[in-house]
Amino acid sequence: QVQLVESGGGLVQAGGSLRLSCAASGRTFSTYTMGWFRQAPGKEREFVAAISSSGSSTYYADSVKGRFTISRDNAKNTVYLQMNSLKPEDTAVYYCAADSQSNFWYWENNYAMNYWGKGALVTVSS
């Protein structure tokens, strides 16, 4: 079992930055691919970014590429999402997820991940 807890959400002006953190319990964190999804009000959940178990590979949705950076610290059982140049359309609840699936195409097209956090709200004002 893996428990995920997000933190770092909040209110920021357009053009600003925020860093989300996701702390994981359990000794097997370093074996999981980790990722972030988001869900805006009235919209479906969408993929944001994913990172391989070692941290050597990353993958991003086109909508955040060049603005967001996913990283992880396996010694701290934590994955991060650095969000820069935020836009009002980035407003959403951001969810951390863990899965043994390492194929990034699967992450981008399938939301049935093994483990989910409860989410962190990010609000970007214009």
**Spans with pLDDT under 50 lasting ≥5 residues?**
none
Distance between the termini: 40 Å
Overall form: globular
Rounded mean pLDDT score? 96
Name the beta content range: over 45%
- Rg, Cα atoms, Å: 13 Å
SSE order: EEEEEEEEEHEE
* Total number of helices: 1
E-strand count = 11
Helix share bin:
under 10%
Major pleated sheet:
7 strands, mixed
Structural category is mainly beta
Summarize the structure.
This protein has 126 residues and is mainly beta. The protein has one helix at 104-109, and strands at 4-7, 10-13, 18-24, 33-39, 46-51, 58-60, 68-73, 78-83, 92-99, 115-116, 120-125. The N and C termini lie far apart (40 Å).
Task: Give a written overview of the molecule.
The longest helix has 6 residues, at 104-109. With 126 residues, this protein is mainly β. The N and C termini lie far apart (40 Å). The strands form two sheets. Strands 2, 4, 5, 6, 9, 10 and 11 form a seven-stranded mixed beta sheet that branches. Strands 1-3-8-7 form a four-stranded antiparallel beta sheet, with no helix packed on it. It is 5% helix and 47% strand. The mean pLDDT is 96.
Name the descriptors.
126 residues, mainly beta, four-stranded antiparallel β-sheet, globular
Task: Give the topology, please.
Elements: E1 4-7, E2 10-13, E3 18-24, E4 33-39, E5 46-51, E6 58-60, E7 68-73, E8 78-83, E9 92-99, H1 104-109, E10 115-116, E11 120-125
